[in-house]
Each structure stands twice: as C-alpha cells, then as structure tokens.
Design goal:
- With about 220 residues, the protein is of the alpha+beta class.
- The chain has a single domain, classed as Glutaredoxin (3-Layer(aba) Sandwich).
- The chain is about 50% helix and about 15% strand.
- It has helices spanning about 20, 25-30, 55-75, 80-85, 95-110, 115-125, 135-145, 145-155, 160-180, 210-215, and strands spanning about 5-15, 35-40, 50-55, 90-95, 185-190, 195-200.
- The strands form 2 sheets. It has a 4-stranded mixed beta sheet. Strands 3-4 form a two-stranded antiparallel sheet.
- Helix 5 (about 95-110) packs across helix 8 (about 145-155).
- The longest helix has 21 residues, at about 160-180.
- The model has no long low-confidence stretch (mean pLDDT about 95).
- GO terms for molecular function: oxidoreductase activity.
- This is DSBA-like thioredoxin domain-containing protein.
- Pfam families: DSBA (PF01323).
Length: about 220
C-alpha cells in the first residue's frame, strides 16, 4: 500500500444514496489507513424538498437502480429491503431523519460517525429496516452502544436540528465551491491554502491503492 501524508478526505454523501452505500467498503478502508481522516459531510440531497413518497413508480426505479449497483459493486440489496422498505405503501424516501441521527453521533462520539452511517446502511439495505423512522435509527445507535446519541434521536433538541441545518448548508456550499455534482464525492487537499479538488464517485469503486495515490497528490 502506498504511503500517504496526513490528509483529510471530506466525504460528500447522502445516507439514502445507494451509490454512497456501495462506497462503504472504501470509506472503511480510509478510516483504517494511518494518516487519513474521514470527515462526513451530509448534503441533504434527499431531505427537505428532496424527499418524496415511495410510490409504485419510484419503488420500481429504485429497485432497478439498486440491482445495477449490486451488479457493479457487489454490495447486497436484500429481498427484505425490497419487501419491507421499498414496498411499504405509506413509505417515504427522506434522508432527513438519518442525517439528524448522524449529527447526534457527531455531537456525542464523532469518531464513530462513519460506523453509525454504515450501520444505518446495513439496517436498511440488508436487514430491511425503515431508516426514515427515528425509532429505528435510535435502536440501531443503542445496539452500537451510542446511547447518548440514541437519546438525542428519540427526543431531538432545537440545538440538534439547528446543527443539522448548518451541516447540510456547509456541505452544499462546499459542493458549489468545488463544482461537485451529485453524490458520493470526495473533497481532498488543503482547505487552509484553498488547494482542494474533487474526486468523483467513480474513484470510490476502483483500485484502492490508486485512490490513495490521488489523495496523496491532492
């Protein structure tokens, strides 16, 4: 594995993005790489005005897209997810609750935020649990031993909701400044000098050593 200087990679993502779920193994490897820090930046792509009901047309589209992701990346999308999440007649596609739950982790045990994100992704796409429900998200956090974050999710404070809005606004401003389109994206480089650039999502599904080299050269 090539060596890298100390670096921070900012992960621009949405917790309900299937392609972001597909990038989970690479993000875990980044987290385990000495000298590399992963900063999560939820963009709110599927929250607020980006949220929508999961009607039959959207469900069919989502499942077809998920199958394509699975074929290209090997990440599993289970039948339980299809039946218990996508097929729910009153379901919503809304990443606002998961973004709030991640922000609760960021405020209480920030070093475990990526772990929490990946637990939410497994709960949804493998276990077939509805991660648009705060009760489900709090239960997942409790299983991880993140009890302070779970308590915040069960009874969100005004301060937590304000922090969510601030994080999303900051991530969107970052995307605009970098000319980034869509998620997932990695922002790499030195924020202090302004020498930053975006590595597009495709870089997250290829050779990890090559990706590390790109980070090192940013």
């Amino acid at each position: 594995m090539p060596s890298t200087p100390p670096a921070t990679v900012t992960y621009l993502f949405d917790p309900l993005c299937g392609w972001c779920y597909a990038a989970a193994p690479v993000l875990a490897r980044f987290q385990a790489t000495p000298g590399v820090q992963v900063a999560l930046a939820p963009t709110g792509l599927f929250a607020g005005t980006g949220a929508r009901p999961m009607d039959a047309q959207f469900t069919a589209y989502a499942w077809a897209n998920d199958q394509r992701i699975a074929q290209l990346t090997g990440q599993p999308f289970s039948q339980a997810y299809r039946e218990q999440v996508l097929a729910q007649p009153s379901g919503r596609f809304d990443s606002g609750p998961a973004t709030l739950a991640l922000t609760a982790v960021a405020q209480t045990e920030p070093a475990r935020e990526l772990e929490a994100l990946q637990a939410f992704q497994r709960a949804r796409y493998v276990d077939g649990r509805d991660t648009t429900a705060l009760t489900v998200l709090a239960d997942v956090l409790g299983t991880l031993g993140l009890h302070a974050a779970a308590a915040l999710v069960r009874e969100p404070t005004d301060a937590l909701r304000a922090a969510v809005l601030h994080r999303v606004a900051a991530a969107r401003a970052d995307m605009q400044a970098l000319g980034a389109q869509g998620v997932p994206q990695l922002a790499v480089g030195d924020a202090a000098t302004g020498r930053r650039r975006v590595l597009g999502g495709q870089a997250l599904y290829g050779n990890f050593d090559a990706l590390l080299q790109q980070v090192a050269q940013a």
